[in-house]
């Protein structure tokens, strides 16, 4: 074989001042590891012959049978050149000696060796055994079809077992999510590359739980097949499924979903209870997996009411993918906390209410119902702090701040700010209230949409509401 | 032995490059069957009391012990229930041991305000001079005295004692007997040498760089990159690798992060994330070359109670595409070509270590084997799932290889049972501390340690304690 490698090694060692280990050389030059070891030896010999005062330092690997205190063991060790003879003499039988690395500077400890190998392996993770001396026939990566097949098998088996478990207990939100640290499935990562249609069933626990919650939900909740709508979060870019899990988890709430005329995905719920510890997915930092998942997911019946406040988790700010679906009450008038489980005070809701709550209104105009996949308008319902005026028994107009649910559409955010009320006094007969009162009445129709943040601040615009 | 096999071929690498490097094919164990289904959790209802475990344990072990008792002391000796024994009559009773220890931490005492006690600091051993043994069965309990060594036993072991009840209501023991080894299948005849490599306590994320180099050497050796032809040939005979727990270091479970409220740790990444990433990279190198079984341990991201469920494969995106990666439960049971292997990541053994006077992990291994129970101290001092129908830790078939991970030092021993069973006991040491792994030859049931080191000159200061 030609001696080009000598020049290569020369260049690596002297010019680039690298530590050339046999593994690094083998992966860089694309040769068998044993050849790489021999190349290093050849180079070392050559250089030693040429200039005896060379600055080259070498480390060797010595392995063999070693005896100590009457016990034998197999010892594998990397030694510096000066320790080579010493170590060799201690071994009863020497199994192998070869050059481990060559470098210009003398090494004090083994961490540079390790980091060299670590770096080169990281670059070549998918073919790290290509140049090794052992081939294993069964160690070939699975194809994506096999993976999806395995996942669907697992999906089929788990709902059965989980169903019994969950229905037997009163489901506690925190409990369930805690016990399912692995609810996010590999399919999340695999699903990123090949959109899988099977949804993993760890969420089945969630599902079942949600179903049980469903049953216990208020009677007002109509049991319609619900689908999740796509979240209008497309403008945040592609979302990794793993992120969806995290974000769903962030929300920490079970989500109520509503019917959608189109097929929708159901993964949100599943993802919810996932644990952020298991997030090895290489740095896909986007959110909103839901978008990517919409097509392949099956529909599920999910109506979940959630009481839990958001769990903090790392990507909380960008938790657009949380879908808070609120149940739209048939009655037009806003009740206080009865139907709305989450006392979603506008300031705290921040990003959550923002894009993430597709909301279907029963009495909505048909136009809205076709907006499923658009990300422009969403009917949402929120709990808003409003002032209500009423007449006292003494005849005074009393203004009270009250939480009311109000529906708003995202696009109409211009006139939204008015709903944040100032604290009122009981005897105040402020006329400003009247403007807001109008708002309430419109609340169920196309009310002035709130801003994306959902926080309403009193502004002069309140006087110029849409009538 | 591995080192002998590795030295069969001559040294070739201190020479000019050859034209072609040798390629060896990995010996694959033709049938690796994971038999750990009994440790997989089916449902997860924690509504039940833990007392059911003891009840079912006793019910399952009573027939075995009765038979042993009759074998040992003859059929004429009656085997009675505690409620039926009469004073002065020699009989056998079967029951569960309860060891009363003064020093055993009791949560009730800790939180009780009337004593105003500070919580007890953790100790290495909780045994004391005044400990007592009490035998319990389904209905009653009785204190034991006599020819029974209090410190050898621990809570949860089911035994049969022979003796008589005295006037003061205590039972005077003349002899006792344990269930001994369960029946064992016939040993299959393997024609070729086939090795299983066992490592435990990798301790990733612990910030210890030395053990990382050793780990890299281990991976290189197993995948056939390290060493000369002889060694590579030997490494090709390794048909399976078992990682027995504590893949992550206990540093990843920092107390601060565990104790803090979730909203405070919002933006911080858990310590284990980086460590799991490193583990995935190591596993992908291994899985590309050899079948690997990964068991979770005390500090790994899985549930705390025994049986620990397998780590989830979503944590290993790079390596889980390989079919050679097996994520298994703790305890782990498998058949290699018909040879049964059983072991844990060490939590049960270290728990028994705390509550008995045995110092040697091999002794503890042997005593659990002779008691025919994997984790007798569960659920008393070792967390476990509230089983109801059956106790999956009872050994029904005797393994050929019985191991525990995360032992302080490497030890191995071959023991034999009353009916001719033979078992190789292996205490796998922590790799992050000792840089030692174990190679077990399936054909001869021999175990050899392998030590890895880098740049250490005088490191053989009696760290190893190998007893054969």
Question: How many runs of DSSP E, i.e. beta strands of chain B?
Answer: 19
Helices and strands of chain B: which structural class?
A: alpha/beta
How many β-strand runs of chain A? 7
**Oligomerization state of this entry?**
heterodimer
Element-level helix/strand string of chain B? HEEHEEHEEEEEHHEHHEEEEHHEEEHEE
Radius of gyration of chain B: 24 Å
The averaged pLDDT of chain A comes out at 59
Q: Uncertain spans of chain B, ≥5 residues at pLDDT below 50?
A: 457-468
Profile the largest sheet of chain A.
Answer: 4 strands, antiparallel
Biggest sheet strand line-up of chain A: 1-4-2-3
Q: In percent terms, what proportion of residues of chain B is strand?
A: 15-25%
Number of helices of chain A: 16
Unreliably modeled segments of chain A: 160-327, 329-375, 412-454
Helix content of chain B: 10-25%
Main β-sheet of chain B: number of strands, strand sense, barrel status? 6 strands, mixed
State the secondary-structure class of chain A.
Answer: alpha+beta
| Residue share in β-strands of chain A | 5-15%
- Taking the alpha carbons of the first and last residues of chain B, their distance comes to 14 Å
Order of strands in the sheet with the most strands of chain B?
Answer: 2-13-14-15-17-16
The string of secondary-structure elements of chain A, in order, is: HEHHEEHEHEHHHHHHHHHHEEH
